[in-house]
Automatic annotation (TrEMBL):
PROSITE patterns: CYTOCHROME_P450. Belongs to the cytochrome P450 family. The keyword Oxidoreductase applies. The gene is ncsB3_4. Its EC number is 1.14.15.31. Keywords: Heme, Iron, Metal-binding, Monooxygenase, Oxidoreductase. This is 2-hydroxy-5-methyl-1-naphthoate 7-hydroxylase.
Amino acid sequence: MNQPLSTAHADDVIAIDPMLGDLDGETNRLRAAGPLARIDLLGAPAWAVTSHAVARRLHTDSRLVKDINQWRLWQDGTVGQEWPLVGMIDVPPSMFTADGPDHRRLRAKIAQALSVRRVESVRPVIEDLVAKLLDDLGAEDARAADGSVDLKALYAQPLPMLVVCHLMGVPEAEIPVLTQQFKTFFSMLTPQDERLAVIEALEAYFLDQAKQKKADPGDDLTSALVLADEGGEPMSIQEVAGNLHAMVAAGHETTISLIVNSVRALLTHPDQLRMVLAGEIGWDAVIEETLRWDSPTSHVLMRFATEDIEVPDSDGLVIRKGDGVVTSYRAIGRDRTQHGDDADSYDITRKDNRHLSFGHGPHVCPGAALSRLEASVALPALFERYPDLKLAVPSEELRKLPIITQNDTVVFPVVLRD
């Protein structure tokens, strides 16, 4: 899997670290390489988009598609089922992998099922879950020997999975197994044969869920997908299952990181935290600046060129037909051309923090409103309950979780009170 990059030399290539040993350094190297960086993605050459403006253009370019069969390395067998990231690209049919008319049909049905009304209706559920999780967080048996608690494991991680499974109509008793399966799937430490077995198990699980709801629909998102009539012919059971799988995976992982990264940013910028707690700045500003500055998603895989694409403002670089293109959201969020010379600074008073952390164009994340809603409930409730919250270890000692697509920590120990 050592094919040369089209139009690139080996010494130009940035190897993406699956262990995320130095995400800040990698982000800086990607930005320094220009709006398009040549990368090595676990042995597979690809392009990484690092520019806000270029990402906006490419995300609306119909010559870049989600179909893995357009990838030259897939066509010639260089990349196959043994590649650790194949399960993020070669996936069951869903809105996340379709293009053109099929994508518009599926997108219309997702929009109908995941309506503004449905998202807002889950707010009381989120509030109740947050209150319970905060109670559990403060329990004596939640504390480690040094008095700290793992805010990620006890708060940021369970909340979004509980919410998305509530929406989908997934029984709460099944959530622990699902959570562990997704951890196994995403982790770069998982052997590929084990990952493939987990993928097969998850696909079977969501197919069974879709069949159950088709036979006996209820007031949940899965049933709404089965019954959705917008945009043409109904979804097949396989499409319902594929969309469920993708929405649960993306819907909980992103929100975990958003909550953790927001708390980390505030605790390491105490003057800004004081402004928020004093009501001088709203929590929406915290959420949007965190999405820009420390995007929950580091890299999104992958689009493929159906023909040669000359990229404007890239010094004449050409994405060749069959090339793979990764979107590096963390680098894009630090783009100085878009955000100014202080793009590396966390600043909730920033006048323009428009970002692309939920995507752009036809494939913009359909769950963005839900993720923002969860964070907008979880963050103020956390600091209202525990206003003296502080990190239990220096921020620089927090290790990143080995997930090549996610910007997350292994643990997030905090002290609740002085």
